[in-house]
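Ticket opened by: R.M.
Priority: normal
Category: complex prediction / small molecule

The reporter submitted a protein together with glutamine and asked that the result be attached to this ticket for the collaborator who will pick it up next week. Submitted input follows.
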Amino acid sequence: MIGFQGAVSEHVSAMERALAGRGSVVEVRRSGVVPDCDGLVLPGGESTTISRHLDRTGTGEEIKHAAGSGVPIMATCAGLVIISSEVERETRFEPLGLLDVKVKRNAFGSQRESFEADIDVAGFQSPYHAVFIRAPAITDRSDRVEVLAKVDGLTVAVREENLIGLAFHPELTTDLRFHDIFLDLVREG
Ligand code: GLN
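Result attached by the on-call engineer:
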């Protein structure tokens, strides 16, 4: 769990629930920890701030290395912005360039700063209740990226091999289906 800033404790509890004792969660706030992790979560928060911490501590480079060697990553909201390859109209930081998508920050505009929606997700048998908070959206992607869900025509959930990118906050509901997909990838690895 990348733990510099944002919805970290909520993510830790949700992941602990999903793990149900079959693994442990550590909060990463310095270099040297990422190389020992079997899976990584990049929580939501403020992407500019999180990005600054990743640069300062060298954990950004460690995350790139882990992703390149196949370690599963679940990146949500600001985390999705951080692992993307391009952020529209963003000049303050460089995303890590792991997930081959272009994202737009705060894509749903100020009138819909936060909202909830029942979305259809590829592979899910029933709708998923998603919580969006100043959410980004995916505006472009390479063919390797699979779209898992859309809202208002905007892509909000994708997967590219070991990388899962979600524009919403799966840690804020009791539905752990995305966590289960992520943990299946971790166990396969
Ligand atoms: N708008 C935020 C950003 O781009 C993300 C919001 C969130 O993570 N809830 O940094």
